[in-house]
Amino acid sequence: MFAKEWTLLLVSFLFSAIAVAATPLKESSQVKESSQAYPKHCVVVTGTASTEDVSKAFARQMAIRNGLKLASMQNNLSIDSDQVVKDYTLTKDMTHFTSHSKVSKFIIMDEGVKEPEFDDLFNEKGLKKSPEEIKKLQTYQVRMEVCLTEDPKACNNIPGNHYQPKLAIARPVTTDSYGAADISNLLVGYQNELERRLKNQGYQNLLMLEDSSVIDPNQAVGPNLSPEVLDPVRESTGAQFLLLSVIRSISAHNEDPKLWNDIKRFYNREVQPNARYIEVDFYVVDLVNHKVVSQNRKGFDVKGDVVVGRDRPFGTNAFFATDTGMIFHALLQEQTQSVYSYLNCRPVETRIIDIRDGEYIVFLSRESGARVGDELAVYHNFGRPVRYQGMDLGLDSKPAGFLKIKRIQSKFAVAEILAKEGLIQVGDTVRSW
Q1: Contact at 8 Å (CB) between 5 and 11?
Q2: Which N-terminal stretch is annotated as signal sequence (predicted)?
Q3: β-pairing, 167-169 with 206-208?
Q4: Distance (Å, rounded) from C-alpha 263 to C-alpha 250?
Q5: In the listed set 117, 149, 181, which residue is the last one of a domain according to the structure?
């Protein structure tokens, strides 16, 4: 009885320590403050960008980026300097600036092309420059009021901060199938609970994978990061990230003194397990760059009535009413909180999958948070894949333009050119900002 009460107390403590997840933001240029406890600090800045060999629309987008960067450097800024002096001579001087503020909203107050200053119209010989030379000196300027916040729950990718990258949830695997013999529907139930809890926290851009082939069974069980394995998942689902879970331990055992267990066996009484150790590893895999970007391990001891029984399948109320079920509840809460915290406000990255009559088809669903009128940045991929020691490191890319969403269908978005600089084609990368 004491062991059971101790278990309930432990789980209650775990539940109370779980932080409340942030609600996804719903606006791009005017983002709601996520908490009144963090006062906003507004500044007026002027972002500039060269118009040389680019359209005004493209220069405007780059000027907005420049303005947001300048604004973020005007509040809560830390400066790290590294200087080396040798023989009374400064041989190294490096300064690193880090802003701890995030953009909560911005308003464009004035914008347009700025002509060069009078002195810049003449060359060093005093002769007036040609119209072509003068045009190259023009810059596009955007005067903006930018409001900053230090709220840790706020997004710092403006615009596009209301997006949610698509997350695929793979079916978990376990390395302790014998220890899970008393639990039915463990793997499918665990996967379903991950989806349900992430959606309850506000993460809607999810899909379920029916197999666990992305786990590599030939090594110590962990993610298989081979492009041959991950690329088909990304191509077929459009997912940007993949969630993998490995239940490392779920074994149950008896911790009573040996003498007491021997007495029970002498009287033909069954020795039931009264302790269990549960441990789960989970990984967030970047399907674009083929790497693990977040990895965690959670484990808890539970004592008491730890045997579940096949008549209480994983995920049911009857299951979560058991001592083992309460520990799984705590594990799932911590896992979903960790995954949500990592993915929330991450920039969305997808691809152009078709071009039809001047319209660009983007692999982007409504669940991602995309809306008609949103602006997306395009990066043109060029050259052959970069390889190093047998590894495919991907393609080189450069900014190519901006798209504006015209229509959104169930599994894709239709966009038009907002500003273009260079070639844009099928397969090019599209990012929320």
Answers
A1: no
A2: 1-21
A3: parallel
A4: 27
A5: 149
